[in-house]
Amino acid sequence: MAWRDAKASRVRLLLFMSSIILGIAAVVSIQLFSSNLTDNIQRQSKALMGADYIIDSRQTLTDRAQAIVDSLQPDASEVNFVSMVAFPKNNGTKLVKVRGIKGSFPFYGKIDTQPTSAADNYQESGGALVDATLLLQFNIQPGDSIKIGELTLPIAGALKAIPGTTAISSSVAPPVIIPERLVKETELLQFGSRKEYQFFFKASDTLDLKRFEEKIDPMLDAEDADLDTHTSTSQRLGQRYENVGRFLYLAAFIALLLGCIGISSSVHIYIKEKLKSIAVLKCMGASRTQSFLIFLIQIAGIGIAGGFIGSLIGIGLQGLFPYILQSFLPFDIEFSISPQPIFIGLFLGLFMSILFALLPLLSTWYVSPLEVLRVNEQAKQGPKKMRFIVFFAIILFLFLFSFWMLEDAIYALGFVGSTLITFSILAGIAKGSMKLIKTYFPKSWGFTTRQSLLNLFRPNNQTLVLVVSIGLGTFLISTLYFTKDILLAKTQVEQSSEDANIIILDVQSDQREALKQNLINRDLPIISSIPLVTMRMHKIKDRLVKDIEQDSTAQINGWILNPEFRTTYRDTLIDSESIIKGEWIPELQSEDSIKISISENIAEDAKVDVGDTIVFNVQGVLMETTIGSIRKVDWGQIQLNFSIVFPKGVLEDAPQFNVVTTAVPDEATSAELQQSLVSEFPNVSIIDLRQVYTILEDILSKISWVINFMAFFSILTGIIVLIGSVRTSKYQRIKESVLLRTLGATNKQILKISALEYVFLGLLGSFVGILLAIISSLALAVFVFKEPFVPSLIPFIVFLPGITLLVLGIGLSNIQRVLSSSPLEVLRREG
Amino acid sequence: MPKILKIAGLTKTYSSGRKELTVLQDISFEVEKGQSFSIVGPSGSGKTTLLGLCAGLDNPDSGQVELCGQDLNALNEDERAQLRNKEVGFIFQNFQLLPTLTALENVSVPLELQGSKNATKKSMALLEKVGLAKRSDHYPSQLSGGEQQRVALARAFANAPSILFADEPTGNLDEETGEKVIKLLFDLNQEAGTTLVIISHDLDLANRTQQILRLKGGQVLTNERIKV
């Protein structure tokens, strides 16, 4: 019976199915992609790192650390640093990451070069492997030369890939690989230079890397060095992509949820139309269970078929993700199809269809055989208790599914809560506007206008479903748009000519004046000249840092104890800072103790407050200081911010280097300045902020591409739900339209009635969606990005009319078909 | 007497899959203005199809329909709709009221479509005539079958039609209610001077009209005048 009944309604049922198909396709494709990603990371973990384990340090190894490294016998090593390089062929200059490698690193995976032999020969030939994109940018070929500091050497090949590097991470400072033995000749490793030493190891198969790491890592930590194994690195990498995957998963889940709402509303109307048939069946002796099962089996069938087709589409779609995410992935993905996501797709399709169809299905249970004689417009929904149980089951399922994805009960609760709030607001507004129209019904308006307004709240209306689905779709796209705006607003700083756009790093004290003069000669402003003094914490509140490190009960955050802090001294606060506690001391008073200012996060992590003491080790000299003030620092602003600031009159004679900033009007001046500085002061590094902004914009546009892709699913599902709802309402309204035409209504009048209804629904849904997006974006701006938020008008100018027109188009296209059918045919069919 | 409806050589065929079914074959007859006319015949004889073609609800495959002096074949759908709105009234076996409108709103529809200014007042007067003034704000689902048909009757006369088509008007009503509706129909017909075309199984009802057209298998069996 279920099959026979379904055959007669197959077009409608197919439409119900299409909304679930899209949702499942989104979930399955992301599930498959995530499981493939994790699988690939695990499989390629050695190749990702290039070694079994690495020991690294941001300073020359201490004697003890060196002893540990020596005892383990490294198979290869590297020293890397950021520096300017020049191409003598065309005087091009660029900030790069120079990697001086010794030995045959990598042991797993390979350095991909053009020509391929360059990776094998550069060590002997003494050439450089230079990032392929960089060569392309500067029109340089292998065989040309590159000048790194005082060293000029031939370019052996174009570097296309090296284990552990992503396209994004290498875009600010592209890599240049040279043999380690040549690093000294560059003369770039001077005092204050930022550098990193890495030692690569190949482990025997019998070595238990986990136990090894547990044993050695704490020893190295104490010496400011660090140990990473390929397993721990791939785990971290896996977790990082898992977070991205989870976000995408949630977006897909919203698409699925939207599909379920589509199912629920379609089933509601479908069942309402079937109530008379059900009553007839009951008159003929069908039991409640039998009549309930007829439709339950149909819905289950739709769920399984939708789940299966959705899974198949999902399998096809997963191939797109690597293309979208390729800049973020440090490796190629090989695809395999695991059965788990397909089972999940089938289960979700079946379970969610039934769950969301249960509320409308309940009416088949409670329909009385008496309905044969008269079908009420309002179908019986079943007792409140039953509806509450179904509603509770839906919420519980949403929570459990979110919890499974997010693995955090609070986040899952937050997700379910915010989903419910968004749905409730949209549903509330839909119901509120229906009530409002009913209360203040404009009785004096023309017939067609009144008729279209009547359709919004009279029986069989689609207001609730359409406002929720249109509103949710618009909410998603608009939130994405506003968020992108907030993030991109950061990059607008460069527009202001007063802001620095060139930062010159690593300027030695004896170079400072000559460099300033160079800028003055070019009529370029010296916006700031900031001294940098490196130091470490020796004692915090009279406790030796070494003792705190040994104390497992210490509340102090571990990261604070080891690093080399880059501090500065000045007598004024800068734009990105404000004092939240204590008093800003501009200059040392002779009789006072040294009162420093620390940032909020240091105060929190070191558990110190105003008045507490910290003893610093300033390159061998111990210096006692007292915390004079705590500052709030806006780290988001692209400028030099400091955790620790000294007053003037303390560090002037300490060994230091400087950061000088200036502003150049155009790219040509920037290139000329960089060429001149690189030849005069080979050790300085220059960052052109405009290039950084371009890269940032590129990264943001890539991220928004990924997000937009997911939003597309939700929107597409929204459109399917829309088509489904409009089509279902078409079945409802076909009789009305035909009757109106029989009574003499022209096509224009019928079209006007429908058009006004859909314009109203489109406008209300999209307007509320945009308003909700403004609220959520404001919350994101204040609490997450900590940025000001001025909503753009684009969603109002583009999305609002665009989505309204889309709704109108879909609505009218269906009505068009109603208008072309013969009134007599419809009247006879509808009885 | 002038003719309000002229039918000549009307043929209608429906296709069902590969099969073709001729529902009406070469039908010709005429109805005089102000006359009461009935079409009778067994189920499947093509009565309802004929009524639909006469009222311009469907197009014939061949033949001509002239309604109120207008050749329906020469009119497009909107022009036919306007003609119906001005000149035609309908009563259906299943009442065919708009479920989302109240009784009063249902009666008003033809007037509203014309843009009539006193639609509500006129409709209320008609509801009073059919004895349903007190149920004017009820929805069709809240009315009995007889009440629904009386609302349909009021709606059919709302635009003061020249011709009224009634398809089995008592088919869904009990004898007593049916009789009341028929009496009302004839009273309103006489009062307004409307031409009445009734389709019915009921020969007693047909015998109360001035002319009877008998159909069988899509063809005219007889077309006779009744002396009342």
Give the rounded overall mean pLDDT of chain A. 80
- According to DSSP, the number of beta strands of chain B is 10
The name of the CATH architecture of chain B is 3-Layer(aba) Sandwich
Largest sheet of chain B: 6 strands, mixed
What is the topology, as strand order, of the major beta sheet of chain A?
2-3-8-5-7-6
The helix-strand sequence of chain B is EEEHEEHEHHHEHEHEE
Q: What's the total helix number of chain B?
A: 7
Task: Tell me the CATH superfamily of chain B.
Answer: P-loop containing nucleotide triphosphate hydrolases
Structural class of chain A: alpha+beta
Q: How many individual helices of chain A?
A: 25
Layout of strands and helices, then pairs:
The complex is a heterodimer of chains A (831) and B (228).
Chain A: H1 2-8, H2 10-43, H3 45-49, E1 53-57, H4 63-72, E2 76-87, E3 92-103, E4 112-114, H5 118-125, E5 128-131, H6 132-137, E6 145-148, E7 151-161, H7 169-172, E8 175-179, H8 183-186, E9 195-201, H9 209-221, E10 225-229, H10 230-283, H11 288-317, H12 320-325, H13 339-366, H14 384-406, H15 409-439, H16 447-457, H17 463-489, E11 502-508, H18 509-521, E12 528-540, E13 543-544, H19 545-550, E14 565-569, E15 577-582, E16 594-599, H20 600-606, E17 613-618, E18 621-633, E19 644-646, E20 657-662, H21 667-680, E21 685-688, H22 689-742, H23 747-785, H24 794-820, H25 823-830
Parallel strand pairs in A: 3-8, 5-7, 14-19, 16-18
Antiparallel strand pairs in A: 1-9, 1-10, 2-3, 2-6, 2-9, 4-7, 5-8, 6-7, 11-20, 11-21, 12-13, 12-14, 12-17, 12-20, 15-18, 16-19, 17-18
Helix pairs in contact in A: 1-11, 2-10, 2-11, 2-13, 2-22, 10-11, 10-13, 10-22, 11-13, 13-14, 14-15, 15-16, 15-17, 15-23, 16-23, 17-22, 17-23, 17-24, 22-24, 22-25, 23-24
Chain B: E1 3-16, E2 19-32, E3 36-40, H1 47-54, E4 62-67, E5 70-71, H2 77-87, E6 88-91, H3 103-114, H4 119-129, H5 145-158, E7 163-167, H6 175-192, E8 195-200, H7 203-207, E9 211-216, E10 219-225
Parallel strand pairs in B: 3-8, 3-9, 6-7, 7-8
Antiparallel strand pairs in B: 1-2, 1-4, 4-5, 9-10
Helix pairs in contact in B: 3-4, 3-5, 4-5, 5-6
